[in-house]
Amino acid sequence: MNYETFFKAELDSLRDAGNYRVFADIERKRGSFPKATKHGDGPDEVTVWCSNDYLGMGQSAHVLKAMHEALDSCGAGAGGTRNISGTNHHHVLLERELADLHGKEAALLFTSGYVSNWAALGTLAARLPNCVVLSDACNHASMIEGIRHSRAERQIFRHNDPEHLDRLLSAIDPDRPKLVAFESVYSMDGDIGPIREIIEVSEKHGAMTYLDEVHGVGLYGPRGGGVAEREGLMDRITVIEGTLGKAFGVMGGYIAASSALCDFVRSFASGFIFTTALPPAVAAGACASVKHLKASEMERARHQDRVARVRQRLDLAGIPHMPNDSHIIPVMVGDPHKCKMISDWLMENHGIYVQPINYPTVPLGTERLRITPSPVHSDEDIDRLIDALSEIWSHCALARTAVAA
Ligand code: PMP
Q1: What does each C-alpha distance from 376 to 32, 44, 140, 155 come to in angstroms?
Q2: pLDDT tens figures, 12-59
Q3: 241 Cβ below 6 A of ligand 1
Q4: Which residue is closest in CA terms to ligand 1's atom 8?
Q5: Can you tell me the ipTM of this complex?
Q6: Which of 15, 49, 137, 310 could bond to 20 as cystine, CB 3.0-4.6 Å?
Q7: Catalytic residue among 35, 104, 178, 246
């Protein structure tokens, strides 16, 4: 086989389908987010509208100070896996902080949210004897891969459908261990799962619950514990999983659960055991961010205000966006080539950076621009975004929604 020819042909077919990913080469600048320097062709400065640093905490003075101090005192890397010399005191402090955030006995850190899902779900499903995993149809790739890797039986329940979950659970031998995996805020549609109903059905059937709060932590609940905190449900969920790389602005992932469960995953998950621990400065920065957002409501309030303003302006301009109750605004295009073209045009002509979201991240025909406002987007930034979208919508004769009188 000619390997190079194979690779190139595969990439060409991705390009033909409009699904080839091009990364914008940008440089975030301390203190100036959402502006960033752009390298390569086109404008030198862009306004970022698609970051998952939802609250701008990646630029927060508290976070940067904590990272600088830890870097100066501990050096660069952790120096090993958690098991072999890599457990730094900053990891221990962060795990305590996360357990407290979710009202759980313990928490366990991983190098990313992806790894935490893959390793924790995979380990629980593989090691609970004869376990059945019930997985929401729209779960993130990291959960799907973890479940697949476990080789446990997997049943998919219809997205956000507790009745379907109930029917599936009713048909499973009551003595088998069962694990229900779902999300709070779904990343691409921004819809919020019926957490209470899923918990009730799971409790009825004696199933454990595993909630991915990656797009909820920091953003919802009085202390940023996520949607489950807002709804007073954290104590009824067996495992809460989150990331430190989105609203907390740094990097890393975690689970929060009982001491026994965390110890079990710590002791058996290869994705935890056999990899270098997060750099201490990263753990210190994440810890400062979690602490800050526990105490401060300001960022969350301003975030919600910005989200509402963008939605309202989109409505006035008749730009179609998917309604939901979260901070994620999917502006629907419905064609991969157009989606990429619009994204390129926004960047080249207006210095507005919104990455096109195409298959397989979203189903074919639902291609979109996923807009994520942050507390640091100004009214002028919003005006410029809406004017530019309006212009390209007219230029391409794209359908508009009815504008309320
Ligand atoms: N879960 C969900 C629902 C996600 O959207 C993502 C990342 N996009 C992850 C987990 C992985 O988190 P991380 O980026 O920290 O690896």
Answers
A1: 9, 20, 28, 42
A2: 999 999 889 989 999 998 889 999 999 998 889 999 999 999 999 999
A3: no
A4: 187
A5: 0.99
A6: 15
A7: 246
Q: Tell me: the pLDDT tens digits for 150-162?
A: 999 999 999 999 9
Q: Is 246 a catalytic residue?
A: yes
Cα dist from 254 to 108, 142, 267, 364, whole Å: 5, 13, 15, 32
Count of residues for the chain? 405
Q: Which residue in 105, 150, 113, 80 sits closest to 245, CA to CA?
A: 113
| 142 CA closest ligand 1 atom index | 10
> Rounded to whole angstroms, how far apart are CA atoms 327 and 220?
10
Cis status, amide bond into 360, omega within 30 of 0: yes
Q: Is 187 in the pocket of ligand 1 (CB under 6 A)?
A: yes
pTM exceeds 0.80? yes
Distance 192 CA to ligand 1 centre (A): 15
Residue 235 DSSP code: G
**CA–CA gap between residue 115 and residue 142 (Å, rounded):** 7
- Looking at residue 396, its pLDDT comes to 87
Nearest CA to ligand 1 atom 3: 140
Residue 139: CB within 6 Å of ligand 1? no
Per the listing, tokens 């979208």 go with 389
Q: Does the Cβ of 104 fall within 6 Å of ligand 1?
A: no
Q: How far is CA 157 from CA 126, 136, 376, 385, in A?
A: 20, 5, 38, 38
C-beta of 245 in contact with ligand 1 (< 6 A) = yes
**Measured in angstroms, how far is the CA atom of residue 244 from the centroid of ligand 1?**
10
3 state SS of 371: strand
